[in-house]
Write a structure and sequence with these properties.
The structure is a homodimer of 602-residue chains. The first copy, chain A, has 602 residues and is mainly alpha-helical. The first copy, chain A, has 26 helices and nine strands. Chain A is elongated and about 100 Å long. Chains A, B: InterPro entries: S04_transporter_CS, SLC26A/SulP_dom, SLC26A/SulP_fam, STAS_dom, STAS_dom_sf.
Chain lengths: 602, 602
């Protein structure tokens, strides 16, 4: 056991020097400025008090620096996970109650334990079942729901709703109560942030600011909006004119909290915790990998699970909420020059200082400002071109994406993900259950075989060669039987059927029984069954089966051999009966893992 | 629309002649003799009155003759489906109540509608997800449970239980109340049937009876046991000495029944009906295919669904129970010379005559006789060699089989099937999520590439060729990223990575995004990504993607080209940049659906 694998901090801490310290400190300052409004906003999105967002941005970052493998990932509250948190714990208790807060801690703990366990058990591959179209559709739909859920804060009205339709209807019904000062603040911040995102960087560059600082300044726009709107609200007493503000936030370091261990609550939150874990992990690991590759570094997905898991456990014991690696923040961290996870630990110190000293200042921070921050941030999650691209590339991927979006918007986040995963699995299985196969014939003057329906090729009424373009397993075993038997029924003079297996990576027990059935049925009708181009690992298994004994035909090295020999044009030296294989005849070179067994080589 | 396809009776009825009639009549007589005790016994197994078994062997057979495509399948009650019926409706109402009978009708109707709908919607492929090891394990476990559930009748005791353990414990606890005459009858019948199965045929052959009639006589042993034990029980008044008998059975044709349409009941029975449909269909279609192939006939699985579906609907309206094609009976029907489904219709007439005239005679038929008939029949379902074979062939198939057996025995039939299907899908997905891949090198003096770890091959520190032995889809997309990036990280001098795609049958949208990510990350680290041997249908799709534009490398016809050109040993005429492909450069012959794109051919 290599301690550096399980404690990645040991990889970089011993060699930590002054130059790295400088880079990390600078990145930490910039990320802290960006994280303060984000952590407040995402806590609000999750229906939690603002300080919870700050707390979730302290201990988890320190823990991630110890256990995480990405050098630049910025852990903390993120939009989609906050939305999922709200959806999950909203079913447990009403917002503002101690039960609601407690459920957030339990959710973070469960998600942390699940992630850690998945990492230790090397179950990171589970995240693979969230296909790209499903995750992309889910994030787009989440972005729309989050934006819709924040509009009420920009308008200064009361409205509820758990899905897009309810949210929009709720807003429509409350348009009469719009609070003008709130709307003014909300729209100004929206316009400012949108403009900053759109034009600030190029404007700064035109003013002579170098590219990277200009970028950093642009990313600091939200903190400017926070500062200005807080000042204005305080100066003009707008909170007394109906502008909702954050209010008194306790100053101080994160409290020590003990998540509950009520088994009822745990089982209620189980599915939500699992989905939050997987979605958070997928998001985080793809950011981490993208950034690591830019510097030719590697991250270890299984250790990442441990890193994110322990971060969430830390969040649950320090008054936090579920966290993961955030996309925008990580990019900023990377661009600002962070070189090691120490940058994250320094960010934690920055946020801790903010929690100690700055909280009195944000009492007058308008909720509308935070809502506008969220809206501008999440609208970039809505990825319409991805939908169009998926439609163009693959209808079945598009179907999974559309199902995810529709169910997420209409029913909810958990159902949306599950519908997408279910449909993409079902479509994948459906596709492999009816694999592409082709009857092939010899291209004249060559040793190559092509689809008889697409090319002018030689065929022989006594012999049919069927190429199967898929591994043979239970879902398509019967389809293979049907295809072969239909072929035999169609060609009455047939004496030989060859299955060309170059694309067959596996033959499972069901497919083996189908091959046995095919062999027996073909035998009853006087047709021999041959195999050609069977891969090494597949042949290794077949050799010890009854099928191999009972097979009426032979195993040919190449399709060309299978074309010649049964028709009496070859001496048969390049084929073997299975029985011979089992008698110990060595066939090392003909039947191995090579890509192209080819007569020339032997 | 071809009426012969949807009404298969039109295929054989017009040409029906006297010779065929003779063969079919003979087969019908033999099957009737076999079916009478079976239908009584399987009705009892399902917890239903004996006449229900007879009723289920009349109308369904006639309807199957119209809609079914197998010439020799014998439809009616079968052991496994009867067990599943008992398990399903046992949860609705206690045996002997009108609700229990009604639930059996509803189950038959639901199963009939499901099968018919699946047939019309061509959803027969759904049955493929029941893998051979799962169905084999399920049938073995069912055989054990059925045998255990019938032991109490042989012993003449009262005992209950829903799984093997409960059944055996129940029996153990009631051994004190064994009824001696019942046990005598039960053991005699068991011994007689076992002996008949084992030795009767060869004895008859030795006595000069030809093989086929000897076989038929052997199959008639149960009716002999029924006749003899009924006579003995009646003659010696054994029913008054504690021998449980069938009792009064109403004489007459099947009643017209109307299955209930209570939505609560329907939703309670939904899963059971679906599983019964699929298990029944899988059993039936495999018998049908095996027999059809022996005479070079074909059955149409989708039309078979309609045939079995309408048979079950007919059962539900004529006082029956769920039915399907029985293995042993169909083989007897085939061997007895049945040539068309008319044999089934004649069998129905035979059973109808029995229902009209013979029912008074079976009042004294001991339950122990029927139980012994069932036990001998189902023990042949227990297939231990299949378990051993599966273990030897594939550990993952064995795991699915074992899970099915264990859960079926310990929990129940429905859970058993679902556990098996779930596990086999999960294992399949797990396997394809970590596909076999190999870094390959050039076999000296050839154009062939093999695994560098297994063979002495040429490699180049600047170029790595990775062969992926699986279609690329969401479950393995990230694994591909990891594999490629690990390869790049391992070989610092690398300038080119080639993915050899001859075993890649599909690249879905997730895998495409992974390829984009790989391309971008490799670009960041100064490595070009090339593809080789991309199949036609896969390339068709890739051509219109952004990835194709952004790809840093080229698409090579063959791995050998990919080996030569980046290293400056070729003129590049056999590769194309994706951009060129999209500009309209025709590449018909290099990139098509052929198995072996090869330079020689162009």
């Amino acid at each position: 056991m290599n301690p550096k694998r399980y404690l990645p901090i040991l990889q970089w801490l011993p060699g930590y020097g002054r130059a790295t310290l400088g880079s990390d400190l600078l990145a930490a300052v910039i990320v802290t400025i960006m994280l303060i409004p984000q952590s407040l906003a995402y806590a609000m999105l999750a229906g939690l008090p603002p300080e919870v967002g700050l707390y979730a941005s302290i201990a988890p970052l320190v823990v991630y620096a110890v256990f995480g493998t990405s050098r630049t990932l910025s852990v903390g509250p993120v939009a989609v996970v906050s939305l999922m948190t709200a959806a999950a714990i909203g079913q447990i208790a009403p917002q503002g109650t101690p039960e609601y807060l407690g459920a957030a801690l339990v959710l973070a703990l469960m998600s942390g334990l699940m992630l850690t366990l998945m990492g230790v058990a090397r179950l990171g591959f589970l995240a693979n079942f969230l296909s790209h179209p499903v995750i992309s559709g889910f994030i787009t739909a989440s972005g729309l729901i989050i934006a819709a859920s924040q509009l009420k804060h920009v308008l200064g009205v009361e409205a509820g709703g758990h899905n897009l339709l309810e949210l929009l209807l709720g807003l429509a019904g409350s348009l009469g109560q719009v609070n003008a000062p709130t709307l003014a603040i909300g729209l100004s911040v929206l316009a400012f942030l949108y403009a900053a995102r759109r034009w600030l960087k190029s404007a700064l560059v035109r003013l002579g600011v170098p590219g990277r600082p200009a970028d950093m300044l642009t990313k600091a726009a939200p903190i400017l909006a926070v500062a200005v709107t807080t000042l204005v609200t305080w100066r003009y007493g707008l909170d007394e004119r109906g502008v909702a503000v954050v209010g008194a936030v306790p100053a101080g370091l994160p409290p020590l909290t003990l998540p509950g261990v009520d088994s009822g609550l745990w089982s209620q939150l189980f599915v939500a915790a699992l989905l939050i874990s997987i979605v958070g992990f997928v998001e985080s690991v793809s950011v981490g990998q993208t950034l690591a590759a830019k510097r030719r570094q590697r991250i270890d997905p299984d250790q990442e699970l441990v890193g994110l898991g322990t971060s969430n456990i830390a969040a649950s014991f320090t008054g936090g909420m579920p966290v993961t690696g955030g996309f925008a923040r990580s990019v900023v961290n990377f661009d600002a020059g962070a070189e090691t996870p120490a940058a994250g630990a320094f960010t934690a110190v920055g946020i801790a200082v903010a929690a100690l000293l700055l909280t009195p200042l944000i009492a007058y921070l308008p909720i509308a400002t935070l809502a506008a921050t969220i809206i501008v941030a999440v609208l970039s999650l809505v990825d319409i071109p991805a939908i169009r691209r998926t439609w163009a590339y693959s209808r079945s991927d598009f179907a999974a994406m559309l199902a995810t979006i529709a169910v997420t918007l209409v029913v909810g986040v958990e159902s949306g993900i599950m519908a997408g995963v279910g449909l993409s699995l079902a479509l994948h299985l459906y596709r492999t259950s009816r694999p592409h196969s082709a009857v092939v014939g010899l291209v004249p003057g060559s040793e190559h075989f092509r689809n008889v329906e697409r090319h002018t090729v030689e065929t022989d009424p006594r012999l049919a060669i069927l190429r199967v373009d898929e591994s043979l397993y239970f879902a398509n075993a019967r389809y293979l039987e049907d295809t072969v038997m239909a072929l035999a029924a169609r060609q009455p003079g047939l004496a030989h059927i060859v299955l060309a297996c170059q694309a067959v990576n596996v033959i499972d027990a069901s497919a083996l029984e189908s091959l046995e059935a095919i062999n027996a049925r073909l035998k009853d009708s006087g047709v021999a069954l041959h195999l050609a181009e069977v891969k090494g690992p597949v042949m290794d298994r077949l050799q010890h089966t009854e099928f191999c004994h009972e097979m009426t035909g032979k195993v040919f090295l190449s399709t060309f051999d299978a074309w010649q020999e049964p028709r009496g044009e070859s001496d048969g030296s390049l084929s073997r009966r299975c029985a011979e294989l089992q008698m110990g005849a060595t066939l090392d070179s003909p039947i191995d893992d090579s890509t192209h067994p080819h007569p020339r080589m032997h």
